[in-house]
Recover the amino acids of this structure.
């Protein structure tokens, strides 16, 4: 062996076609823990790991024999004490004294090998994540298109055909239901994007869990009734208060309850329990529905997941609800778990939330949009909403259709409405008619809603400068809500406006008693 | 259709004889591995060489993960070629996993086969204690899959998609050929799984034709016990333990390989 090979800072190995080792340099011997002379004449299998032997026989040797060289082969060797030694090697084949010899240069790559393991893991995870997002995007498109098709289809029918009143009524119901479901989808997507960007924020106040649960039960009871599902509640009114965002907790309860109803067959039962356990409250929602298989249980709260994709077609939805639910609960310092005895045997979702530590602190009344919109009456018919008789509302919206719709909603509840299209007109009418309340769109050409409210707030009290105001915007983002509130609005409603929500907010804001 | 199959599997025909001798390569390589033994049979046989879909210069666009997730997909390749060339009375020479492919093909279409020559065969690579020694534990095979991943690391991100889309461009195929015997890492992985996780012990008794088992004396992939097991369970089988060691005697010891094959074929004729 040349001196150069002896002192080279890399391993050197020479072997014959039948695998007999002909030479090994000191560095290789050291790495593999053998003494000089110990390897010559032995089989190359001795220094290969078991997987390494298979790779040698199936890839390395055939390639070397056919191409007379191989480059950048990763192989794991085995040391005398049985340790795996990952190496990178190049090999070349030559004739010597009429026989073939194979020369290899080997570089041990322990750290690089670990790094490659990590890289491969990261690569696979990234590929899976991309796939999940692609699937999700496809699902979102499908889910958004479905209600849209219903809306467009019915609208075309109503516009082009002579339909009797009954069918028109049904058409409008379908359109409304479809639009609502689409609004809910968009809400979910926005929530989800807040979650992934870490921007989901809570507007925290003192919350009585029993109120949140009862309000949610009110909302879902029509759906339960329609399916003949019995809703039972066992609520301990002393379990509370907790510190939390009532809007978000309401969303969680609504999600758990509507899921329970969705996955429970006709005639089943859904039960809500609220109890105090040590220093936390536990809220559980149990159903007698289709249950969750043991394989799916660990993934219930994962994004984009829904038990078997064929089933997802049957139930629709984006599979985001549970991921959002968990995120909200965790932001509250709580936890959520799912249990099921298996498919067909019902499921239980249990939430733990910490009790509020200081019970007697003065509570700040809910005046922000977040809290005030917590009404739980989104499905109420207008007739059951608070009356706005004698109330004068100044409505500003540049879009005539929106203006007409909102005017109609407010007028139906008894309000007098002055509707205008521009900020200038609004300021003029404010002085003239002295309204009790302003409702204004934010996005308007020229001067917008922010400008309007700033100019209103700069006026004196006698000129209407303190008139309460509600902002309407198409963006439901947290930052948009914050901007509206800080500009001088008292409340914020995102479009499309729920008539019930608007009426309730107007009533709340003008301190009218709810005449339920 | 026939032509399509011949192109798909890169079928090459040589030799001056009439009886077909079909050579099937093992996992990790392609038909080139036979080039040291085929010249010895060219005068007496019609030699059929091919690459399985996913190996060598086969057409990658014909690859389907479903079809090739078990050995049966590879068996179909062999039978497709037999049909396309209308072969019968075949001497089938299979290396390693192709021994099992040949066994399964002969059970499915006994009328096409004369006999089987099995080079380094194993009906089951995983140990099944207490009665069967295959030579490997599942963890060893997982280690092999890991090694495949790492050796194809550049492939996965760069070469594979290019080649898959331009399967007809010669220079790319050329590059593929020289960078590795096998192809796409996903294909290599699936072939490894189909090979090393297969268990064809129950099929051995059904083989309708005589066979020669060429067992190397020191084979890390098919130990001596496996050769004995095959000999016991294959009807009309002859076991020859070679002086050659390793798993590829047709490449490392072509003379001995040729000699044993010729002796077997001559003896079986008389």
């Amino acid at each position: 062996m040349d001196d150069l090979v002896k002192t080279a800072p890399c391993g050197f190995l020479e072997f014959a076609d039948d695998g007999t080792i002909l030479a090994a340099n000191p560095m290789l011997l050291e790495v593999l823990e053998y003494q000089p002379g110990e390897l010559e004449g032995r089989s190359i299998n001795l220094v290969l790991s078991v997987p390494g032997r298979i790779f040698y026989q199936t890839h390395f040797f055939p390639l070397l024999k056919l191409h007379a060289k191989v480059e950048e082969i990763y192989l794991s060797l085995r040391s005398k004490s049985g340790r795996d030694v990952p190496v990178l090697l190049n090999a070349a084949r030559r004739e010597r004294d009429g026989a073939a010899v194979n020369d290899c240069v080997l570089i041990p790559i322990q750290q690089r090998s670990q790094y490659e393991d990590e890289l491969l893991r990261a690569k696979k995870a990234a590929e899976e994540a991309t796939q999940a997002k692609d699937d999700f995007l496809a699902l979102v498109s499908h889910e958004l298109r479905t209600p849209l098709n219903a809306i467009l289809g019915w609208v075309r029918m109503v516009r082009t055909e002579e339909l009797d009143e009954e069918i028109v009524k049904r058409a409008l119901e379908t359109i409304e239901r479809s639009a609502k479901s689409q609004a809910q989808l968009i809400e979910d997507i926005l929530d989800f994007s807040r979650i992934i960007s870490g921007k989901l924020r809570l507007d925290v106040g003192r919350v009585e869990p029993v109120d949140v649960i009862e309000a949610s039960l009110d909302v879902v009871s029509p759906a339960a009734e329609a399916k003949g599902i019995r809703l039972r509640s066992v609520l301990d009114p002393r379990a509370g208060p907790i510190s939390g965002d009532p809007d978000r907790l309401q969303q969680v309860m609504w999600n758990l309850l509507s899921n329970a109803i969705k996955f429970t067959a006709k005639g089943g039962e859904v039960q809500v329990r609220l109890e105090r356990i040590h220093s936390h409250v536990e809220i559980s929602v149990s159903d007698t529905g289709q249950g969750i298989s043991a394989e799916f249980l660990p993934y219930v709260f994962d994004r984009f997941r829904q038990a078997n994709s064929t089933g997802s077609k049957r139930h629709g939805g984006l599979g985001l609800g549970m991921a959002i639910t968990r995120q909200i609960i965790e932001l509250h310092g709580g936890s959520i778990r799912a249990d099921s005895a298996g498919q067909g045997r019902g499921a239980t979702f249990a939430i733990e939330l910490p009790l509020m530590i200081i019970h007697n602190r003065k509570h700040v009344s809910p005046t922000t949009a977040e809290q005030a919109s917590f009404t739980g009456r989104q499905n109420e018919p207008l007739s059951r909403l608070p009356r706005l008789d004698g109330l004068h509302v100044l409505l500003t919206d540049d879009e005539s259709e929106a203006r007409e719709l909102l005017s109609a909603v407010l007028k139906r509840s008894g309000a007098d409405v002055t509707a205008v299209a521009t900020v200038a007109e609004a300021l003029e009418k404010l002085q003239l008619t002295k309204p009790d309340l302003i409702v204004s769109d934010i996005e308007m050409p020229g001067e917008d809603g922010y400008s309007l409210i700033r100019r209103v707030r700069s006026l004196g009290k006698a000129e209407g400068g303190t008139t309460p105001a509600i902002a309407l915007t198409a963006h439901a983002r947290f930052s948009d809500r914050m901007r509206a509130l800080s500009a001088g609005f008292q409340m914020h409603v995102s479009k499309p406006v729920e008539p019930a929500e608007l009426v309730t907010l107007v009533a709340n804001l003008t301190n009218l008693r709810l005449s339920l | 259709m026939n032509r399509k199959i011949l192109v798909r599997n890169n079928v090459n025909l040589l030799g001056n004889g009439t009886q077909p001798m079909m050579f099937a390569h093992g996992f990790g390589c392609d038909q080139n591995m036979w080039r040291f033994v085929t010249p010895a049979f060219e005068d007496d046989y019609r030699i059929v060489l091919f690459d399985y879909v996913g190996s060598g210069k086969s057409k990658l666009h014909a690859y389907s993960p479903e079809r090739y997730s078990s050995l049966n997909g590879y068996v179909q390749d062999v039978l497709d070629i037999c049909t396309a060339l209308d072969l019968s009375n075949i001497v089938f020479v299979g290396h390693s996993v192709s021994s099992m492919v040949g066994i399964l093909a002969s059970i499915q279409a006994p009328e096409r086969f004369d006999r089987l020559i099995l080079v380094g065969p194993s009906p089951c690579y995983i140990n099944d204690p207490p009665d069967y020694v295959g030579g490997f534990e599942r963890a060893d095979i997982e280690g092999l899959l890991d090694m495949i991943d790492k050796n194809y690391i550049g492939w996965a991100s760069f070469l594979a998609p290019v080649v898959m889309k331009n399967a007809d461009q010669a220079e790319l195929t050329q590059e593929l050929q020289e960078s590795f015997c096998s192809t796409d890492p996903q294909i290599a992985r699936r072939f490894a799984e189909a090979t090393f996780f297969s268990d064809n012990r129950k099929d051995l008794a059904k083989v309708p034709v005589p066979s020669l088992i060429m067992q190397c004396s020191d084979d890390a992939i098919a130990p001596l016990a496996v050769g004995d097991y095959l000999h016991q369970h294959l009807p009309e089988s002859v076991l020859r333990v070679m002086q050659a060691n390793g798993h590829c005697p047709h490449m490392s010891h072509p003379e001995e390989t040729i000699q044993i094959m010729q002796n077997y074929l001559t003896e079986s004729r008389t």
User: Anything to note?
Assistant: Residues 2-124+200-269 of chain B form a domain with the Rossmann fold fold (CATH 3.40.50.1820). The radius of gyration of chain B is 18 Å. The longest strand of chain B covers residues 113-119. The first helix of chain B runs from residue 2 to 8.
